[in-house]
């Protein structure tokens, strides 16, 4: 297959490029920087305007757009503008490039996020729910902003007409891999230094997905022509934060973890250049589309996944 990954130099993009390249596919990564020592080809683009890069989409089996400024930052006016623009402009650019192809891609997969759902410590949401976050939700303004960003992102994607091209929006939760700088690397670092206790109230859910299941699910969706629209990319077993961290400590062989109360997270977030909602919001989602389509999760349970991650992290870090 020919796989084009737009904005594919981040953690998720690298996971996908590595997977598809390893199993013998042609992988082209569109990046703002054309320099790369990767085994796949890297082509420069600006994420906004059409250019020579658009020819790479011709006859692709799948175009996967992952471009967008990280939400792990302070929500200043400038950062808010860049968070929205980077998602909208890259989606529009990819859509225009697909519309210009002579042989259209078979499927266009666009990044999205599970942050589109409401904060919930009880109800778990599948893709069929209309109870989305944002307007009218009694939560901090930064939480509403994050949800509205995803809705704007998906609305932009939905509005672009590409006849004959199947479209999928990846509502990604935490994509867990042992790679340096990823979410798991950060969490395990906290655990190893005795700081891996409950974060905030501990009742907020963490929805997550093992990297092996993530890349297999994307491959599965490319091959299953019945799948379109939003897809929750998460394990079928989300967990409350307190339980999630307890299992991680056990997998790492660490008995004690200092907890971080909500007020400490709110104080520390500006110092770390981030927003507290990333830890405090309960993301409680289930992979309804994948389960109905018969996708077989290899790592549905966090205890098995956590042990696998710790073992692989140790192998990678000596």
From TrEMBL:
InterPro entries: DUF1731, Epimerase_deHydtase, NAD(P)-bd_dom_sf, SDR39U1
Domain NAD-dependent epimerase/dehydratase: 3-224
Location of the DUF1731 domain: 260-308
Recorded superkingdom: Bacteria
Similarity section: Belongs to the NAD(P)-dependent epimerase/dehydratase family. SDR39U1 subfamily.
Protein name: NAD-dependent epimerase/dehydratase
């Amino acid at each position: 297959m020919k796989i084009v990954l737009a904005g594919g130099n981040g953690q998720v993009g690298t996971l996908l490029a590595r997977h598809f390249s390893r199993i013998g596919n042609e992988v082209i990564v569109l990046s703002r920087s054309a320099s790369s020592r990767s085994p796949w080809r890297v082509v420069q683009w600006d994420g906004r305007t059409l250019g020579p890069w658009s020819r790479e989409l011709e006859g692709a089996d799948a175009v996967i757009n992952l471009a967008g400024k990280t939400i792990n930052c302070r929500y200043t006016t400038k950062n808010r503008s860049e968070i929205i623009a980077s998602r909208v402009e890259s989606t529009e650019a990819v859509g225009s490039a697909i519309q210009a192809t002579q042989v259209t891609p078979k499927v266009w997969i666009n990044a999205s996020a599970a942050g589109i759902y409401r904060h919930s410590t009880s109800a778990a949401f599948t893709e069929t729910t209309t109870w989305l976050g944002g307007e009218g939700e009694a939560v901090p303004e930064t939480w509403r902003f994050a949800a509205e960003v995803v809705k704007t992102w998906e609305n932009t994607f939905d509005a672009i007409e590409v006849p004959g091209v199947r479209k999928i929006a990846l509502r990604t939760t935490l994509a867990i891999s042992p790679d340096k700088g990823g979410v798991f690397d950060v969490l395990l670092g906290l655990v190893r230094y005795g700081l891996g206790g409950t974060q905030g109230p501990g009742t907020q859910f963490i929805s997550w997905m093992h990297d092996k299941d993530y890349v297999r699910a994307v491959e599965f969706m490319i091959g299953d022509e019945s799948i379109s629209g939003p897809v929750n990319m998460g394990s079928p077993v989300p967990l409350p934060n307190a339980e999630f961290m307890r299992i991680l400590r056990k997998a790492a062989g660490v008995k004690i973890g200092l907890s971080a109360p909500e007020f400490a997270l709110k104080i520390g977030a500006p110092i770390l250049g981030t927003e507290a909602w990333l830890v405090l919001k309960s993301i409680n989602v289930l992979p309804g589309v994948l389960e109905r389509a018969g996708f077989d999760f290899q790592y549905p349970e966090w205890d098995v996944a956590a042990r696998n991650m710790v073992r692989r992290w140790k192998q990678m870090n000596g």
